[in-house]
Amino acid sequence: MRIGHGYDAHRLVEGRRLVIGGVEIPWEKGLLGHSDADVLAHAVMDAVLGALALGDIGAQFPDSDPAYEGADSVALLGRVRAMAEQRGWKIGNVDATVVAQAPKLAPYIPQMRRRLADACGVPSEDVNVKATTEEHMGFTGSGKGVSAHAVCLLMRR
């Protein structure tokens, strides 16, 4: 078995859609980034890549490559899963936390779990997503951005 940890953060800006965990959430701002800036999918990808000792998403999908401009991060997570499988590993489970002062994410969590589980090739019950605030502290608490942490377990196939 191997364990990986991932973290990502993006700034909230006007004029972008808000995508978290592969789910588009109606909101006045979205996350700034080269791809769709899905912080949750990025944290999960980094957790898997970390467990594989393959660096991070910037090494695998550089923001200097125009091929990834506006990319669907859940689709990229599927590619990371394929990297794991090619090396003889499968994703066992994922546990993740999104940190955002607003909007409220609880109504979207079941759909996030399904989208991430499908990309990881596991049942929804093997993907846990939590959401929390930082009580108005820091960049997430002041509404300037959103961050996410994730851990995953890889098992030999």
From TrEMBL:
What PROSITE patterns does this protein map onto? ISPF
Site note Transition state stabilizer applies to H34, T133
Which pathway does it serve? Isoprenoid biosynthesis; isopentenyl diphosphate biosynthesis via DXP pathway; isopentenyl diphosphate from 1-deoxy-D-xylulose 5-phosphate: step 4/6
Gene3D superfamilies recorded: 2-C-methyl-D-erythritol 2,4-cyclodiphosphate synthase
Instruction: Tell me the cofactors it needs.
Output: a divalent metal cation
Q: What class of enzyme is it?
A: lyase
**Which SUPFAM superfamilies does this UniProt record tie to the protein?**
IpsF-like
- Molecular function via GO: 2-C-methyl-D-erythritol 2,4-cyclodiphosphate synthase activity; metal ion binding
Q: Which domain of life is it from?
A: Bacteria
The UniProt keyword set, sorted, is: Isoprene biosynthesis, Lyase, Metal-binding
| Enzyme Commission numbers on file | 4.6.1.12
What's the short name of a Pfam family annotated to this entry? YgbB
| Cofactor, how bound (note) | Binds 1 divalent metal cation per subunit.
Its annotated function is as follows: Involved in the biosynthesis of isopentenyl diphosphate (IPP) and dimethylallyl diphosphate (DMAPP), two major building blocks of isoprenoid compounds. Catalyzes the conversion of 4-diphosphocytidyl-2-C-methyl-D-erythritol 2-phosphate (CDP-ME2P) to 2-C-methyl-D-erythritol 2,4-cyclodiphosphate (ME-CPP) with a corresponding release of cytidine 5-monophosphate (CMP).
Q: How does it assemble?
A: Homotrimer.
Which family, according to the similarity comment? Answer: Belongs to the IspF family.
Q: What is this protein called?
A: 2-C-methyl-D-erythritol 2,4-cyclodiphosphate synthase
Please name the source species.
Answer: Anaerotruncus massiliensis (ex Liu et al. 2021)
